[in-house]
Amino acid sequence: SAVISQKPSRDICQRGTSLTIQCQVDSQVTMMFWYRQQPGQSLTLIATANQGSEATYESGFVIDKFPISRPNLTFSTLTVSNMSPEDSSIYLCSAGGQGAYNEQFFGPGTRLTVL
Amino acid sequence: DAKTTQPPSMDCAEGRAANLPCNHSTISGNEYVYWYRQIHSQGPQYIIHGLKNNETNEMASLIITEDRKSSTLILPHATLRDTAVYYCIVRVALPAAGNKLTFGGGTRVLVKP
Lengths: 115, 113
Description:
The complex is a heterodimer of chains A (115) and B (113).
Chain A: E1 4-7, E2 10-13, E3 19-25, E4 31-37, E5 43-49, E6 56-57, E7 68-72, E8 75-80, E9 89-96, E10 105-106, E11 110-114
Parallel strand pairs in A: 2-11
Antiparallel strand pairs in A: 1-3, 3-8, 4-5, 4-9, 5-6, 7-8, 9-10, 9-11
Chain B: E1 9-13, E2 18-23, E3 31-38, E4 45-50, E5 55-56, E6 61-64, E7 70-75, E8 84-92, E9 107-112
Parallel strand pairs in B: 1-9
Antiparallel strand pairs in B: 2-7, 3-4, 3-8, 5-6, 6-7, 8-9
């Protein structure tokens, strides 16, 4: 199994600012993903972080708002840009291999509060 | 990916078996059934997955009906630490689909002493 860590674990930010969340995996993985979990809700996929190329965004999420980097097979960052209170959520990183047989592992999440 | 339907919540007694149903009537032949759970303030945790045969591991058993339109996750001896939201997810096995998961509402399970 893969162990995933995220930094920061939580933050309180002012509207209009940006926050970069880091995700580190303890082994090389093919796929990395970023999810958002709004208060009391289920998880929603933001994007797939592709190593060496632009991330693949889901409907409703755009690169200008959520720029993602993935410089190698064990690390990715998600930036929440120009934040508003509606961005207050838990942001989770996950990783796994390709194919149905490989389960996906999740980080502990970053709890973001925007004032 | 096919949609799943789960009861929003259920209670179960500590030490008893917890049976969590999931309906996936539109599942296609190349879709697997996955179960994850999310304990409060933690990231989701993989539990088990299957295609059409029943599966068992150290955490749970997965029973899939013959027509594959529904499944049941069984926690054989529920403990207080099993209190969590349980998600049933169906996912294609095609490489082009990557490995992304689509989460529904899940079932909020409360294990009571």
